[in-house]
C-alpha cells in the first residue's frame, strides 16, 4: 500500500479489492471499462480472480462500486467500472482534476478516475471486452474473443480461437491468433506478428498496417490501400498456398494507411 | 463533396430526436455523437471505396477516390493515363492485326479526330485499357510467398 503525507497526515493513495470465484472450467468474461487498464490473463486454473485498483485520494469508492459479479447459470463473469455520472469532475486553475463523488458524498477527491482491472481466468474462456479510453491487454489461451475500444491501445498476445477487435483511434498489436482474426480501426495502427497458421482480415481508414510473418510460413495475401503505399519484403510469386509449417492468409484494406509486409 | 456536410446533417438530426427526451437523453446523445462521428466518417469513406471498387469491376472507365482532408471527389484514371505520353520508350514489338475495312476506317477516323497518328492512337488506347483498369497499380499486392 502506498501512503503519502499531506500536511503531515498519512493518506493512502492506492486502493484495491480482490474477488475470487471458484470454477470448474472456462467461462464467459464480459468487461466494460470507462478508463483505466484492463489486463486479462488466462492459465490452467480452477478459479477466476479479479483485482480492482485505483490510485488517488478518496478514490476507494470507485473500487467499491466497480461491478464484479458471476452468474453461475450462464457461467458469465461481469466486470465493470461505475457509471460516469457518479463522479463530477472539476478542473482547477492549477490543472489538477478534482471532483465530488456524488453517491459516496465525498467532498474532495484527487488523482486519476481510472479503475484498473487485473483479471485471471481459466484457459479457453470466451471474452467480450469494451473500453472507452483505457488500454486493454490480453495474454493467454482464449476462446472466441471480442475487443472494442475507442481511444485506448489494444495489446493481444497468446492464442485465440477467433478474434474480433475494433478500435477508433487506439493501436492494435497482435501476437498470435489461431482461426480467424478480424481487426478494424479508424485511425489506429495495426501490427500483426504471425507465428503460425492463421487468417486475418484487417481494415483501417487512416491507420497503417504492419504484418510480420515468421520465417518458414507461407503467406497468402491480398493487400489494398486506396491512397497509401503497399509494400512487401517477402517476394509474392506463384508459391502454392500450402506449407507443412503453416499458412498465414491475410486480407488487408486501408483507405489512406500504408501496408507493409516483412519477415518476423 | 464535403464529408462534414453529411456528418453535420446526421448530428443535427440526432440532436433533433434527442429533443424529444429529457436532459439525460440529450446528454447521452451528445456523448454518442462525439463517439460515433469518427465511426460515421469511416463508414461513409468505406462505402465510397466499395462503390468505386464495384464500378471499376464493371465500368469501361476506371475511377478512383480522391480524399483531400474533408473533401472527397472522384477522378477518372483513364483520363489521366490517356493524357500521358504513352508513346515513350522503344517500340520493338509488333502485332500483325487482321481486321475489317470498316473497323480500320473507324480507327483512322478516331485517330484523326484525336490529332494522333493511327499507330499512336492504337497504342494509347491499348495502354489505357491495360494499365488503368480496376484498382490503380502500386496500391495493391496479391499473391503467395515463403517468409
Summarize the model shown.
By secondary structure, chain A is mostly beta strands. Chain A has one helix spanning 60-65; strands at residues 3-6, 9-12, 14-22, 28-33, 38-43, 47-57, 67-71, 76-80, 87-91, 97-101, 110-111, 116-122, 125-131, 136-149, 154-167, 172-174, 180-185, 190-194, 198-204, 209-213, 218-225, 230-232, 247-254, 259-263. In chain A, the strands form 3 sheets. Chain A has a 20-stranded mixed sheet that branches. A two-stranded antiparallel ribbon of chain A has the order 1-2.
Please tell me about this protein's structure.
The complex is a heterodimer of chains A (264) and B (147). Chain A is mainly beta and 264 residues long. Chain A has two domains: 1-122, no CATH class; 153-264, no CATH class. Chain A is 2% helix and 58% strand. Chain A has one helix at residues 60-65, and strands spanning 3-6, 9-12, 14-22, 28-33, 38-43, 47-57, 67-71, 76-80, 87-91, 97-101, 110-111, 116-122, 125-131, 136-149, 154-167, 172-174, 180-185, 190-194, 198-204, 209-213, 218-225, 230-232, 247-254, 259-263. Chain A has a 20-stranded mixed beta sheet that branches. A two-stranded antiparallel sheet of chain A has the order 1-2. In chain A, strand 1 and strand 2 form a beta hairpin. Chain A is globular. Chain A starts with a strand and ends with a strand. The model of chain A is unreliable at 84-105 (pLDDT under 50). With 147 residues, chain B is an alpha+beta fold. Chain B contains five helices and three strands; from the N terminus they run H-H-E-E-H-H-H-E. Chain B has helices at 3-18, 23-58, 77-83, 101-114, 118-131; strands at residues 63-68, 71-76, 140-146. In chain B, strands 1-2 form a two-stranded antiparallel sheet. In chain B, helix 1 (3-18) packs antiparallel against helix 2 (23-58), helix 3 (77-83) packs antiparallel against helix 5 and helix 4 (101-114) packs across helix 5 (118-131). The longest helix of chain B is centred in the first third of the chain and has 36 residues, at 23-58. Classes of the chains: A mainly beta (264), B alpha+beta (147). Chain A binds chain B through residues 150, 168-169, 186-187, 203, 205, 213-232, 234-241, 243, 248, 253, 255-256, 259, 261, 263-264, and chain B through 35, 38-39, 41-42, 45-46, 49, 52, 64-65, 67, 135, 138-147. Strand 21 (218-225) of chain A pairs antiparallel with strand 3 (140-146) of chain B, so a sheet runs across the interface.
Amino acid at each position: 500500500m502506498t501512503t503519502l503525507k499531506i500536511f503531515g497526515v498519512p493518506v493512502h493513495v492506492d486502493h484495491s479489492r480482490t474477488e475470487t470465484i471458484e470454477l470448474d472450467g472456462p467461462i464467459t468474461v464480459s468487461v466494460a471499462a470507462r478508463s483505466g487498464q484492463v489486463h486479462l490473463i488466462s492459465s490452467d486454473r480452477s478459479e477466476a480472480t479479479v483485482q480492482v485498483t485505483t490510485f488517488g485520494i478518496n478514490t476507494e469508492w470507485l473500487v467499491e462500486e466497480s461491478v464484479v459479479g458471476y452468474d453461475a447459470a450462464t457461467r458469465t463473469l461481469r466486470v465493470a467500472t461505475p457509471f460516469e455520472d457518479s463522479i463530477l469532475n472539476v478542473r482547477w486553475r492549477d490543472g489538477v482534476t478534482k471532483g465530488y463523488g456524488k453517491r459516496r458524498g465525498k467532498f474532495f477527491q484527487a488523482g486519476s478516475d481510472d479503475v484498473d482491472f487485473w483479471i485471471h481466468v481459466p484457459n479457453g474462456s470466451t471474452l467480450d471486452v469494451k473500453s472507452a479510453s483505457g488500454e486493454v491487454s490480453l495474454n493467454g489461451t482464449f476462446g472466441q474473443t471480442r475487443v472494442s475500444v475507442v481511444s485506448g491501445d489494444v495489446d493481444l498476445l497468446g492464442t485465440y480461437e477467433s478474434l474480433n477487435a475494433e478500435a477508433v483511434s487506439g493501436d492494435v498489436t497482435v501476437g498470435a491468433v489461431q482461426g480467424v482474426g478480424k481487426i478494424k480501426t479508424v485511425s489506429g495502427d495495426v501490427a500483426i506478428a504471425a507465428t503460425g497458421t492463421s487468417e486475418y482480415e484487417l481494415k483501417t481508414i487512416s491507420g497503417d498496417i504492419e504484418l510480420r510473418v515468421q520465417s518458414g510460413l507461407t503467406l497468402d495475401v491480398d493487400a489494398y490501400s486506396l491512397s497509401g503505399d503497399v509494400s512487401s519484403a517477402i517476394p509474392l510469386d506463384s508459391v502454392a498456398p500450402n506449407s507443412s509449417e503453416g499458412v498465414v492468409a491475410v486480407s488487408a484494406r486501408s483507405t489512406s494507411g500504408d501496408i507493409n509486409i516483412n519477415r518476423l | 463533396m464535403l464529408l462534414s456536410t453529411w456528418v453535420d446533417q446526421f448530428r443535427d438530426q440526432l440532436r433533433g430526436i434527442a429533443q424529444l427526451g429529457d436532459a439525460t437523453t440529450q446528454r447521452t446523445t451528445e456523448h454518442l455523437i462525439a463517439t460515433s462521428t469518427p465511426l460515421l466518417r469511416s463508414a461513409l469513406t468505406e462505402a465510397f471505396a466499395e462503390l468505386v471498387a464495384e464500378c471499376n469491376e464493371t465500368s469501361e472507365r476506371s475511377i478512383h477516390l480522391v480524399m483531400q482532408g474533408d473533401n472527397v471527389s472522384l477522378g477518372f484514371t483513364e483520363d489521366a493515363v490517356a493524357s500521358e505520353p504513352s508513346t515513350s520508350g522503344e517500340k520493338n514489338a509488333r502485332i500483325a492485326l487482321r481486321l475489317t475495312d470498316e473497323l480500320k476506317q473507324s480507327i483512322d477516323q478516331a485517330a484523326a479526330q484525336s490529332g494522333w497518328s493511327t499507330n499512336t492512337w492504337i497504342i494509347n488506347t491499348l495502354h489505357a485499357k491495360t494499365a488503368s483498369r480496376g484498382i490503380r497499380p502500386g496500391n495493391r499486392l496479391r499473391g503467395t510467398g515463403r517468409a
